[in-house]
Amino acid sequence: MKIIETALPGVLILEPQVFGDARGFFVETFR
Q1: Are 31 and 24 in contact (CB under 8 A)?
Q2: One GO molecular-function annotation for this sequence (predicted)?
Q3: C-alpha distance from residue 4 to each of 8, 9, 12, 20, 24 (Å)
């Protein structure tokens, strides 16, 4: 998961990592 800080104090953007192959995509959001 990628954590991006913003200009607002205490506000973060959490960007999950997406795994893809020929069958489709998988996103692990629980970690």
Answers
A1: no
A2: dTDP-4-dehydrorhamnose 3,5-epimerase activity
A3: 11, 12, 6, 22, 26
